[in-house]
Amino acid sequence: MEIRCYKRLLSTSHKEHKITNEEVTRRIDNATGPHFDLLTIVREQKLKWYGHTTRSSGLAKTIIQCTVNGGKRRGRQKKRWEDNIKEWTGLELRNTSRIAEDREEWKAVARRSSMRPDGSQI
C-alpha cells in the first residue's frame, strides 16, 4: 500500500510496471530525503503506548493485559497486542511489564526494537 502511494506521488504511469519497489523508494528518498516506513513508525508508537498503559492503572491496562472476561470467538485466533510486543522486543511478557515500569529503560527497548533493517531508527 505504501509503495502504491509513493508511485502515485511520483506520477509514474501504469505502463511503467517494471519499476521495482527499491527504485520507487530511491526516487522518493531523492525527492524528499530519507524517511521511515510506516511499519517502523507504527511499531515504535505501539511500543510506547504499551509502556505508557503498563505504568498506569486504568481501563486500558486491564484491556491490553486481557484480564476482562468474555466469550470465546470462533475461527482462527487473532494476533494479540502481547504477541506483537513479544515478537518485536524478544522478551517474555512478564519481563516487558517489569521493564516498562522504568520509563527510561522502556524507551531504550522501544527504540532498539523499532530500528530499521539498515540500523537507522526514528
UniProtKB/TrEMBL annotation:
<keyword id="KW-0648">Protein biosynthesis</keyword>
<dbReference type="GO" id="GO:0003743">
    <property type="term" value="F:translation initiation factor activity"/>
</dbReference>
<protein>
    <submittedName>
        <fullName>Eukaryotic translation initiation factor 3 subunit F</fullName>
    </submittedName>
</protein>
<keyword id="KW-0396">Initiation factor</keyword>
